[in-house]
Specification:
Oligomer: single chain
Number of strands: 13
Largest sheet: 5 strands, antiparallel
Strand order of the largest sheet: 4-5-10-6-7
CATH superfamily of one domain: CO dehydrogenase flavoprotein, C-terminal domain
CATH architecture of one domain: 2-Layer Sandwich
Radius of gyration: 19 Å
Bound molecules: flavin-adenine dinucleotide
Helix content: 25-40%
Distance between the termini: 62 Å
């Protein structure tokens, strides 16, 4: 039997983690409870984040950026009207997570802390240029989403730290698209592509990230620069090859490594077409 501690502030959470190094945080419990039921985890102490008011909900910050509290459930992110324009990539990804039951239960903080490479949020957060806010006894720090995901099931989090929020730049003009290829609706991704396209002063800038084709989202400045100015078939093929060259896909029940590699340019072309078609900002 695990002891369940119920702090109500972030300060209390990080105090409890510092005093109980063996404690495990629990948010929605979608993954952790399944692991406990399967006897893959048996934490003696659980620190629940459910009662920490600060971690709940999505709000606009002074300056126009957005803050998604770590305990915000996938359903709220999937349906938020605040996440529009280039940030629409996030509700698009959240709405493709599993099924309604998991979306009602799971939270953005729990999802990214677990960092399964097949998750839907990581590529969407990298494409949206998000920052992850992390708290510990020594204060708060922020890490770019592109640096937060480090390796298979490994993030920039260290012992005693808790994800408190995801922060996003002001929405602005543009669009966000998330395309997920899965064996069946509700399954984890075999491969996915997230695109966030932003228009400022008649110029378009684009960020692309690929999910489920390596230990962390694939992301290259060179690809973003290329697709910001070109969207012809040659540019898509070139961008696809660049992303394939940094991929490290595995063979598993969701698809072979070769199949995952082949999906990258196809999903990229389709996602780009969707984003630019909807906004009328294609160059060709
Ligand atoms: C059947 C099923 C299908 C799924 N399908 C998909 C899918 O298609 N796509 C997808 O993206 N996801 C999928 N998931 C994962 C789902 O999105 C979970 O919500 C997510 O993995 C964990 O979120 P949670 O809030 O439930 O975290 P929990 O289960 O509570 O915690 C998960 C881990 O994160 C740690 N943790 C929790 N919160 C924090 C925090 N704030 N800071 C630091 N560490 C923290 C916990 O200690 C634990 O190790 C699926 C899950 C299940 C059970």
């Amino acid at each position: 039997m695990s002891a369940l501690l119920r702090p109500s502030t972030v300060d209390e959470v990080v105090d409890l983690l510092a005093r109980n190094p063996e404690a495990r945080l629990i948010s929605g419990g979608a993954t952790l409870v399944a692991m406990m039921n399967a006897r893959l985890a048996a934490p003696e102490v659980l620190v629940s984040l459910a009662g920490v008011e600060e971690l709940h909900g999505i709000r606009t910050l002074r300056g126009g950026g957005l803050r998604i509290g770590a305990f915000t459930r996938h359903r709220e992110t999937a349906t938020s009207s605040l996440l529009h324009g280039p940030l629409a990539v996030l509700p698009a990804a959240a709405s493709r997570i599993a099924n309604a039951t998991v979306r009602n239960m799971g939270t953005i903080g729990g999802s990214i802390a677990f960092a399964d490479p097949g998750l839907d949020y990581p590529p969407a957060l990298v494409a949206a240029n998000a920052e992850i806010e992390i708290a510990s006894k020594t204060g708060r720090r922020r890490v770019a989403a592109s640096d937060f995901f480090v390796d298979w099931y490994t993030t920039a989090l260290v012992e005693g730290e808790v994800v408190t929020a995801v922060e996003l730049p002001p929405p602005g003009d543009g669009d966000g698209v998330y395309l997920k290829h899965a064996r069946v609706s509700g399954d984890y991704a075999t491969a996915s592509v997230a695109i966030s396209v932003r228009f400022e002063n008649q110029r378009r800038s684009l960020r692309v990230a690929v999910g489920a084709c390596g230990p962390k989202p694939l992301f290259l400045d060179e690809v973003n620069a290329l697709l910001s100015v070109r969207d012809d078939a040659g540019a898509i093929a070139q961008a696809g090859e660049l992303l394939q060259s940094i991929a490290d896909p595995i063979d598993d029940v969701r698809g072979s490594a070769a199949y995952r590699l082949a999906l990258i340019p196809r999903l990229l072309g389709a996602a780009l077409g969707e984003a630019l078609g909807r906004t009328g900002m294609a160059h060709v």
